[in-house]
Each structure stands twice: as structure tokens, then as C-alpha cells.
Amino acid sequence: MAKIKIILLNLFLIVCVVGFAGQNRSVSDIYRSQIGVRELTGHNDGKQVEAYLASCHLSKGNPWCAAFVTWSYKQAGVKTVVSGYAPNWFPKQNVVYSRKLKKNTTPGTCDVFGIWFANKKRIAHVGFIDEWPAGSFAVTVEGNTNEAGSREGDGVYRKRRLKSQIYKVSRWI
Fold first, then answer.
1. Which of 27, 39, 71, 146 is the right S-S partner for 76, CB 3.0 to 4.6 Å?
2. CB atoms within 10 A of CB 158
3. Are 120 and 126 in contact (CB under 8 A)?
4. Which 8-state DSSP code applies to residue 141?
5. Per-residue pLDDT tens over the stretch 150-164
6. Of 27, 51, 36, 22, which Cα lies nearest the Cα of 111?
7. Residue range 116-131, pLDDT digits in tens
8. Going from the N-terminus, what domains does the chain have, and what CATH number goes with each?
9. Sheet containing 122-131: which strands, arranged edge to edge?
């Protein structure tokens, strides 16, 4: 009987781990599939941009970096905050990395990063961590940015960002 319980427990753990890994891959496949989406006229518009905005009940013309994150998680069926407001992606219980902390969990694929803007006195741009390799740079996928890394961009880009730019990272999977 004890052997059967151990076997069942091991099977349960395997199913859980495989399930989380599959969900993680699904979210990353979804957000990566959007690389190259561009605004129609450069005014936070276009069919796909408006779909991102609609995912968190915002209309055409609104900033959409956080809406892109919302849309991506919704497409994968992951329960998260539903918000187009960047600071809402960092509730204390989900934060795994903060520039202010000495001990952090290493960010991973599908985690959400936030960049602090002093002029706004808040996190004002978010996106996905795609890779967190050793060294000074992280690889991200983010919406409403551009080649220069602006928070007022024109599309979905895969970027190399200095880790020192990243203020917080939250985990939803």
C-alpha cells in the first residue's frame, strides 16, 4: 500500500511539473508570436493593438504595454490581474525580483518586468522576461516599445535590456 501511495504521489508531481512547464511554454509561444506587430498609424491603434487594449477594457489610443501582457496571459488561460495600468502587475505576493532587495529569485521566462520612470514616480512600462542569462543584459518581449526601448513605441519587439533598468519582476505562473 505504501508503494502505491509513493507511485501515485510521484505521478501527481510529474503531472504538476509538466503542466506548469507546458503552460509556461504556451505563454511564451503566444507573446513571441506577436513580435513584429505594429501600430497602424502610430497612435496606439491597429487591429491587433486594439485586441490587446480590449483584453483589459481599454479603447483605441491608450498606452498598451500592460494590455499586451494581459492579452498574452489571457490567450494562455492564465489567471492574472487584468489591467492596462503597469503598476498593477506588481502586487507584493507576486514580486520575485526588486532592485531594492539584496536577495532575489532569478527571473525566468514569462515573468513580467517593470521599469521605473522618475518623472512619473512609478513603474510606467512592462513586458515579459524571455531570458535572464548571466551578465548585464536580459532578453525581453514587450509591446508599445520601439528599437530605442521607448515606452511610447509602435510595436511588439524582442529587446536586450540592461538588467539595471529593470526595477521589479513579478511571477504569475
1. 27
2. 16
3. no
4. E
5. 999 999 999 999 999
6. 27
7. 999 999 999 999 999 9
8. 2-170 (3.90.1720.10)
9. 95-98, 168-170, 112-117, 122-131, 137-145, 155-162
